[in-house]
Design brief:
The complex is a heterodimer. Chain A is mainly alpha-helical. Chain A folds into two domains: 64 residues, no CATH class; 218 residues, MetI-like fold (Orthogonal Bundle). Chain A is built from 16 helices and three strands. Chain A has a three-stranded antiparallel beta sheet with strand order 2-1-3. The longest helix of chain A has 44 residues. The radius of gyration of chain A is 29 Å and the shape is extended. By secondary structure, chain B is α/β, with parallel strands linked by helices. Chain B is 38% helix and 23% strand. Chain B is built from twelve helices and ten strands. In chain B, the strands form two sheets. A six-stranded mixed beta sheet of chain B has the order 6-7-8-3-9-10, with helices on both faces. A four-stranded antiparallel beta sheet of chain B has the order 2-1-4-5, covered by helices on one side. Classes of the chains: A mainly alpha, B alpha/beta. The interface between A and B is medium-sized, with 23 and 26 residues.
Chain lengths: 388, 291
């Protein structure tokens, strides 16, 4: 029996309609996801970008004898509410460090109080009407303006929003990730090499494999409890330190690195291994000289993505005490420290209005670093990808 | 070995072929193994070799002698066990976990499957060239220099360079690559890559070279080049090659073994095999009735 083209087309129309419908649905899903992403980024940018500028005002600073005892005396009474108390507090120590300041009166750009900052940015502020008028007047005279907030990138946490910075958390994150990388990378890669290249395929290795895959899916807070129990309670590693945080995150990153390394090793074609064995390489020589170099881009990509994941992790670090208030930057593996997501978490709980933008600013910095890391991973993969 | 080589050359081999094949004429369908090594020196001696992949038996009681400085071709339809057999000779089957081997593969008076035999030492003396050219993703120079350096055959820079040059010359590749030794081996054409793999194999100065369908991925011109090369190389190495191409076996091989369903059905010198096969299966295969 033969079918005419019309018969077949009639049936095909239904099938084509289904295809179009599914295509539309998947495009809709993609569009929705993109919309959420755009919304999130716009919101973060609008809220966070103002954190990178900070109000400064030009005032007469009187480095008098009285000011070295009572810092408030350094500026005139009507200016006092406008100047950051954090700035005033440092006047005596600056006078001690720079004796030539003694007894002089200088006109200086100083850090404004966060309320002035909020007022200048058009947000709600608690300034009295008289102070608002004064700020308006200063602004008209060009003696009050928003300037780039370098302090945000160079100083540690503070209870005063105009003084708070992300630097101590950034240093803490760096130290923590260094520990994580130093521990998780070699152990993870060697574990994967053993499982993929040496281990016999039997019940025991299958059990290990299943467990590793499950470990990657465990809620991260449990790793925090594990870190608390093992590293702090058993080994006595100092609490809140980058060392304990890094070790805990290493536990969490290990399965990610193992799995990605195994995938990378598996993607190396067997013909390369055979070539190695064929010229009389031992198993280790095959792995070291031929398989690992080829798998390295994949391994590094996995490691970077694992680290990026660890970097954004907060929950396990809260458990090991890394949500401390750290005003000073300390470059030590054993001293109390905090990390960027924990810092953001702390800021998000602060009551003052100005902390909202600082929180968003911190998120922007974290996102920028994460995107940089992920881009590096992609570039590494592309750069070192070899054809064979 | 050198003594044997000179012995070989002094003998009139074609004449002896006649007498051997008539002496050794078996009844149809029986496995044939030539162990009349009166005029050739023995390279590899295989006796009653069985091999299983898990439960399925891939090689059934193979007995066969492989002579030095000859090309031995293994032919037969797909899945007949010829490649599996080839891999027994340098224990590449060790890499497959489910493989079980019984029987004797003897080289230089030693059982290669003996627990005391180090497979790395074996592969140093039994080189291999694979079906698909598989140069290391390194430079042409490194491809050749890697293994001799690893085996401490050479270590001084000048010696390494000399060895690389001579291996590439022996593989007939030197003239084509001498100006681009530091380009990746994978940048060469398929046929050049395969000759690079041959250079890599002979750089460690093996005695036996196994070739697993070395030309099946190549065009006819590259194939002819490799065949010429094999013909020259047999002066110094015993070559065992698997081939799907009957004409190729007829052109280059001194001896041909016909495998069928895991058994070695017939083994004879190539001329006899292709002119007057003793077994029906071999005759049918050679004349193209199946395969």
């Amino acid at each position: 029996m033969t079918h005419s083209f019309d018969d077949i087309s009639a049936q095909l129309r239904r099938r084509h309609r289904k295809t179009r419908w599914l295509k539309g649905l998947s495009m809709g899903a993609l569009g929705l996801a993109a919309l959420f992403l755009v919304f999130f980024f716009t919101d973060m940018l609008i809220k966070g970008l103002p954190a990178f500028s900070q109000a400064q005002i030009n005032v007469e600073v009187d480095y008098s004898e009285q000011a070295s005892q009572l810092p408030m005396a350094a500026v005139s009474e009507d200016m006092r509410p406008l100047v950051s108390r954090g700035y005033l507090r440092l006047v005596p120590s600056r006078m001690r460090d720079n004796p030539e300041l003694q007894g002089t009166t200088r006109s200086e750009w100083v850090l404004a109080d966060s309320q002035v900052d909020q007022y200048l940015k058009g947000h709600h502020s608690k300034l009295s009407e008289r102070d608002q008028a004064l700020v308006d007047q200063l602004q008209a005279q060009g003696r009050a303006e928003l300037r780039f907030n370098a302090r945000f990138f160079t100083s540690g946490d503070s209870k005063m929003p105009e003084l708070a910075g992300i630097a101590s958390a950034a240093v803490g994150t760096m130290l923590t990730l260094l520990v994580t990388l130093a521990v998780a990378f070699p152990i993870g890669v060697m574990t994967a090499v053993y499982l993929e290249e040496f281990a016999p395929d039997n019940r025991v290795t299958q059990l290990i494999e299943i467990n590793i895959n499950n470990l990657a899916a465990i809620p991260s807070i449990l790793y925090g409890l594990l870190g608390l129990a093992i590293f702090i309670n058993f080994f006595g590693v100092p609490r809140s330190s980058p060392l304990v945080g890094g070790l805990t995150l290493a536990l969490m990153t290990l399965p990610v690195i193992i799995i990605s390394t195994r995938t990378a090793l598996r993607s190396v074609p067997d013909s390369i291994r055979h070539a190695g064995f064929g010229v009389g390489c031992s198993r280790w020589q095959v792995v070291r000289d031929h398989v690992l170099p080829l798998a390295m881009p994949g391994i590094m990509t996995g490691a970077i993505i694992g680290l990026a994941q660890a970097m954004g992790e907060t929950a396990p670090l809260i458990i090991v005490g890394m949500v401390a208030f750290i005003p000073d930057i300390s470059a030590s593996f054993t001293e109390a420290s905090t990390v960027m997501p924990a810092q953001i978490f702390t800021w998000s709980g602060e009551p003052e209005r100005a902390f909202i933008e600082i929180t968003s600013g911190g998120i922007l910095v974290l996102l920028a670093i994460l995107i940089t890391m992920n881009t590096t991973a992609v570039v590494l993969r592309k750069r070192f990808e070899r054809r064979w | 070995m050198n003594m044997n080589m000179s012995l070989n050359m002094s003998l009139n081999i074609p004449a002896s072929h006649e007498s051997l094949s008539s002496m050794n004429r078996p009844s149809s369908g029986e496995p044939v193994s030539r162990n009349l090594s009166d005029n050739h020196s023995l390279g590899v001696r295989v006796r009653d070799l069985d091999l299983w992949y898990g439960e399925s038996q891939a090689l059934k009681s193979i007995s066969l002698d492989i002579y030095q400085n000859k090309i031995t071709a293994l032919i037969g339809p797909s899945g007949c066990g010829k490649s599996t057999f080839l891999r027994c000779l340098n224990r590449m089957n060790d890499l497959i976990p489910s493989v079980r081997i019984k029987g004797l593969v003897e080289m230089d008076g030693r059982d290669v499957n003996d627990s005391k035999m180090d497979e790395v030492a074996l592969r140093r003396r039994v080189g291999m060239v694979f079906q698909k050219p598989n140069p290391f993703p390194k430079s042409i120079f490194e491809n050749v220099a890697y293994a001799p350096r690893m085996h401490d055959i050479v270590s001084r820079k000048a010696d390494v360079e000399a060895l690389v040059e001579s291996a590439l010359r022996d593989a007939g590749l030197w003239e084509e690559v001498k100006d681009k030794l530091h380009q990746p081996g994978t940048s060469l054409s398929g046929g050049q890559q395969q000759r690079l793999c041959i250079a890599r194999a002979i750089a460690v100065q093996p005695e036996v070279i196994l070739m697993d369908e070395p030309t099946s991925a190549l065009d006819p011109i590259s194939t002819a080049t490799i065949e010429d090369l094999m013909d020259r190389l047999k002066r110094r190495y015993s070559i065992i090659t698997v081939t799907h191409n009957m004409q190729q076996a007829a052109r280059i091989a001194d001896y041909t073994a016909f495998f069928h369903l895991g058994e070695m059905v017939e083994y004879n010198d190539t001329k006899a095999m292709f002119s007057t096969p003793h077994t029906k299966k071999a005759e049918d295969y050679i004349t193209g009735r199946y395969g």
